DNA sequence: GTAGGGTTAG
């Protein structure tokens, strides 16, 4: 008991190991070896801040391994908890350890099931989660609030809202603020932001996490104005926004192009940076047109991870800085950070915007073969766009024929745009148009491009035919626009809106550069 | 022991 107390006062792995050595040399550890080792294991899991997995896990595993076989339920729980909480988290290993516990017929306790459910929840393993649910009932834990919240979390993460509600509402059983927050997240996660907001409105006590959960829900469903309104409201009622709320608010600034608002949030973050915040800031600056601010901030902050690298690579790519984007891709690998599907999307966009066809073919070939990153539809779409732009229509069609899945609007849009810009084969253009209209029947853009291709070929009868079929089908022209908030743009907006009505395509840029200006495309 | 956050083409 006293040894455990001593350990609880230590706050680093080094001190724990020193205490371990002292206990061993004084012979204390030989008196009650299992208890001593378990205390040490517990202390590792309680360290704050928790050391990274690479440091804490080997020591924890050696402690676990030195326990008399088959160790205890408590020791299993502690190691599972460490596997789930140390970065990066290892939910698979956690589940393996839980199954070892069961295999060795050690009795799972009130802590074991919430841990195993948390692992299943992170891995979205709904069937396994259901099996654990059933087992936990057989062990008589149905009234445990922790267990029930873990179940709500499982079902919420897996978008099994009926089950989540069922656990939440069950006969006379207690729920708390965690139950509410978890179900709010479940609704938002399933895209039902209105139910999330309703539950938030009716819950008896809200905490910081309740606010952050709804704000994130709004942000992720594109309701950024509502998100920022709630962000202000949370502060008005006395809650300081924590990192999660700040990240969501920044994401909304990025989506809305609110550069000044984003800057103000950056100011209040100051030096308290972490990878989540840095990613959101880099993305916000990039999306608001301030790519230099994005890159400078990225360069000067050390706390980057895969997400942050992706944000800067994609940001540079979208701004047309293909060469620089690819340089950052090299730097990412040199820094030992693994690229993923988003990285390769950025890389392919960089190639596409800079016309690097050969490089794109190389990256597209290597992403699976060398980097073990699976090709997804979005990568094919990007390749189609790139090949179409460069006039390699036949190659794009071959790629599409070899795809394991059906093409989407990006894939066929790339082909059609390629045909338009390179006087492509009319049959191919018609095939692409047919696929596009199948995907989106009222798409006026498709009709207009096809009409344009016919016009280029002088086939005026076909142009007229398409125009009249558009009229017959009442196809409306759709207007797309993107904007960046800048004072001089605000002054111009009335004129620009007039321009939209006049069907004029505008590309305005500050000092002639499109990237930091405003673009309206019909 | 249970709860919320970041990057994805135009």
Automatic annotation (TrEMBL):
Gene3D superfamilies: Tetratricopeptide repeat domain. Pfam families: E_motif, PPR, PPR_1, PPR_2. InterPro entries: E_motif, PPR_At4g14850-like_plant, PPR_rpt, TPR-like_helical_dom_sf. PROSITE patterns: PPR. One of its GO terms (biological process) is RNA modification. PPR repeats lie at residues 176-206, 207-241, 305-339. Keywords: Repeat. GO terms for molecular function: RNA binding. PANTHER family: PENTATRICOPEPTIDE REPEAT-CONTAINING PROTEIN, PENTATRICOPEPTIDE REPEAT-CONTAINING PROTEIN ELI1, CHLOROPLASTIC-LIKE ISOFORM X2. NCBIfam families: PPR. This is Pentatricopeptide repeat-containing protein. The lineage of its organism: Eukaryota, Viridiplantae, Streptophyta, Embryophyta, Tracheophyta.
């Amino acid at each position: 008991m006293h040894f455990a107390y001593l350990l609880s006062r230590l706050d680093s792995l080094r001190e724990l190991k020193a205490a371990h050595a002292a206990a061993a040399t004084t012979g204390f550890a030989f008196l009650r070896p299992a208890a001593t080792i378990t205390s040490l294991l517990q202390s590792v899991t309680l360290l704050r801040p928790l050391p990274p997995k690479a440091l804490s896990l080997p020591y924890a595993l050696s402690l676990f391994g030195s326990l008399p076989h088959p160790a205890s339920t408590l020791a299993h729980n502690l190691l599972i908890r460490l596997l789930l909480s140390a970065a990066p988290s290892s939910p698979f290993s956690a589940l393996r350890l839980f199954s070892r516990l069961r295999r060795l017929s050690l009795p799972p306790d009130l802590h074991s099931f919430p841990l195993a459910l948390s692992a299943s929840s992170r891995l979205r393993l709904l069937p396994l989660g259901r099996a654990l649910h059933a087992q936990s009932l057989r062990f008589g834990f149905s009234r445990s609030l922790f267990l029930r919240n873990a179940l709500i979390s499982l079902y919420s993460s897996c978008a099994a809202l009926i089950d989540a509600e069922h656990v939440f509402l069950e006969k006379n059983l207690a729920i708390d603020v965690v139950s509410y927050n978890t179900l709010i997240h479940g609704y938002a996660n399933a895209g039902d932001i209105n139910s999330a907001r309703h539950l938030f409105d009716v819950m008896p006590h809200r905490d910081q996490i309740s606010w952050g959960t709804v704000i994130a829900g709004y942000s992720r469903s594109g309701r950024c104005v509502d998100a920022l309104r709630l962000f202000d409201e949370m502060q008005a009622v006395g809650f300081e926004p924590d990192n999660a709320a700040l990240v969501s608010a920044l994401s909304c600034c990025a989506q809305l192009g609110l550069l000044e608002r984003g800057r103000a949030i950056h100011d209040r973050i100051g030096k308290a940076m972490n990878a989540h915040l840095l990613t959101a800031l880099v993305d916000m600056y990039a999306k608001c047109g301030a790519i230099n601010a994005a890159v400078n901030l990225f360069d000067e902050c050390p706390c980057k991870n895969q997400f942050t690298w992706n944000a800067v690579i994609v940001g540079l790519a979208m701004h047309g800085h293909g060469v620089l984007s690819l340089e950052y891709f090299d730097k990412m690998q040199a820094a030992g950070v693994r690229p993923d599907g988003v990285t390769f999307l950025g890389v392919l966009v960089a190639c596409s915007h800079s016309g690097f066809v050969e490089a794109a073919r190389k990256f597209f070939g290597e992403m699976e073969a060398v980097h073990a990153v699976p090709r997804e539809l979005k990568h094919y779409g990007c390749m189609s766009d790139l090949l179409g732009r460069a006039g390699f229509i036949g190659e794009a069609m071959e790629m599409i024929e070899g795809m394991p899945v059906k093409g989407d609007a990006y894939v066929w849009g790339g082909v059609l745009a390629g045909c338009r810009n390179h006087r492509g084969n009319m049959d191919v253009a018609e095939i692409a148009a047919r696929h596009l209209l199948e995907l989106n029947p009222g798409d006026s853009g498709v009709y207009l491009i096809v009409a344009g291709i016919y016009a280029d070929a002088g086939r005026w009868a076909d142009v007229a035919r398409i125009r009249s079929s558009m009229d017959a089908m009442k196809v409306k022209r759709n207007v797309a626009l993107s904007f960046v908030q800048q004072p001089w743009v605000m002054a111009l907006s009335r004129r620009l809106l007039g321009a939209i009505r006049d069907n004029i395509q505008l590309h305005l840029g500050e000092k002639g550069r499109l990237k930091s200006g405003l673009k309206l495309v019909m």
